[in-house]
């Protein structure tokens, strides 16, 4: 008879100790519990266009349907030739230098490639400069790979551009790379050429790799142009990320890519590591890859949303004007993507804990936002709103928020 001993239990890896992903964290769990109890929750927390009535362009659906039976097998690990050819042309249009077809990798969303490229690079203790606020997957993947995400501040007073002095002050002899998210999630900032040039200058001076997350590069408003930082840094090694989740409303198809550019000779060994990890995952979702060529060619239907009269543009106008008029809230107008990152007057409401603020708003008004801390913002004074819902819904949400803040006081 086997001896009865105490039951063995299993804990998560300590590698996860410094990993945080609040976009789907504890406040979201509470919202799900409320929904299970039959309570309707207004979700302003996830940047997923499809549930808000943004449809995938017809030609993409048609293309996927036509190709489905041809996509039964694995593709080459970096991706189908047709997809990579289209991405290469896209990179050329954006003046990204020294890119050939072998420098392009498709992934199950940009997410997989962020994880893969951090894992292939970092040794324990290596430092990567990551913006605060950031899209938190960057911090999570740097830390999961054994590195240390060192946060540099973006400055709300300067349209949320990176603070160059803060970047400089955080560079050490362990710093290997700098991450930028442009256009930015959660702030909606779009970086002009002068800002990008200053970042390139710092990277050049300290021999850093530049990782640029540009998944919102086709969601830019007010007639502004998106500039890929890699186009300004032919002498540095750069990795640029983009994909179809946001511009083509197909986050569920899981299709993203990364492009290696510039001075690849200094990263030969790192690229070998990337290739190994890319081979190990076999390939990314092939039906997803099969629509890239069609999606990137010709008319971009997202363009209709981001001009006056278009849904994303008009919803931005609405949310910006509504938020800035709420007593105790101030906000910078976003230029791109579909997020806004307002500031709350913490003194007025006595806010010390932004998770509690998010939970209190959820319980009282059934509105789900993400606290600033979820984006590695070091103060409890911000939250992110996704303005994908229609104006009627946003109107309801901002009216409820106004009412909530008329009595809220954190104890
Ligand atoms: N990068 C940023 C800045 C994002 O906001 C997101 C999704 O919200 C991603 C990457 C992940 O996108 P994907 O669907 O391609 O994995």
Automatic annotation (TrEMBL):
| Keywords on record | Aminotransferase, Pyridoxal phosphate, Transferase
What are its cofactors?
Answer: pyridoxal 5'-phosphate
EC number(s) of the enzyme? Answer: 2.6.1.2
**What molecular functions are annotated in GO for this chain?**
DNA binding; L-alanine:2-oxoglutarate aminotransferase activity; pyridoxal phosphate binding
Q: What class of enzyme is it?
A: transferase
The family this protein is said to belong to: Belongs to the class-I pyridoxal-phosphate-dependent aminotransferase family.
Instruction: Give the protein name, as stated in the record.
Output: alanine transaminase
The organism of origin for this protein: Bifidobacterium margollesii
């Amino acid at each position: 008879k086997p001896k009865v001993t105490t039951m063995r239990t299993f804990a998560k890896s300590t590698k996860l100790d410094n990993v945080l992903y609040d976009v789907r964290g504890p406040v979201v769990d509470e919202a799900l519990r409320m929904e299970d109890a039959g309570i309707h929750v207004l979700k302003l927390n996830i940047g997923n266009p499809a549930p808000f009535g943004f449809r995938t362009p017809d030609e993409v659906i048609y293309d996927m349907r036509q190709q489905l039976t041809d996509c039964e097998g694995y593709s080459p690990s970096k991706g189908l030739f047709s997809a990579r050819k289209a991405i290469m042309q896209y990179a050329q249009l954006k003046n990204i230098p020294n890119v050939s077809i072998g420098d392009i990798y498709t992934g199950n969303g940009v997410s997989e490639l962020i994880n893969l490229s951090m894992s292939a690079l970092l040794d324990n203790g290596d430092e990567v400069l990551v913006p605060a606020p950031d899209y938190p997957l960057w911090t999570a993947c740097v830390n999961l790979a054994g590195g240390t995400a060192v946060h540099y501040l973006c400055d709300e007073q300067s349209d949320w551009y990176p603070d160059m002095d803060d970047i400089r002050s955080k560079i050490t002899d362990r710093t290997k790379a700098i991450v930028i998210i442009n256009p930015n999630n959660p702030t909606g900032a779009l970086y002009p050429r002068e800002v990008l040039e200053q970042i390139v200058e710092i990277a050049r001076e300290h021999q850093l790799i530049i990782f640029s997350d540009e998944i919102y590069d086709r969601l830019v408003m007010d007639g502004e142009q998106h500039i890929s930082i890699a186009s300004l840094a032919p002498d540095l090694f750069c990795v640029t990320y983009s994909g179809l989740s946001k511009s083509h409303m197909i986050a569920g198809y899981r299709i993203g890519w990364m492009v290696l550019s510039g001075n690849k000779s200094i990263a030969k060994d790192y690229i070998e590591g990337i290739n190994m990890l890319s081979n190990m995952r076999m390939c990314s979702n092939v039906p997803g890859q099969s629509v890239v060529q069609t999606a990137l060619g010709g008319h971009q239907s997202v363009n209709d949303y981001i001009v006056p009269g278009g849904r994303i543009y008009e919803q931005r106008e609405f949310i910006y004007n509504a938020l800035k008029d709420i007593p105790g809230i101030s906000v910078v107008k976003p230029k791109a993507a579909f997020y806004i990152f307002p500031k709350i007057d913490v003194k007025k409401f006595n806010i010390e804990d932004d998770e509690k603020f998010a939970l209190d708003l959820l319980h009282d008004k059934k509105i789900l936002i993400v606290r600033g801390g979820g984006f590695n913002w070091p103060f409890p004074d911000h939250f992110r709103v996704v303005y994908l819902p229609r104006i009627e819904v946003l109107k309801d949400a901002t009216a409820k928020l106004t009412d909530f803040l008329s009595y809220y006081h954190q104890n």
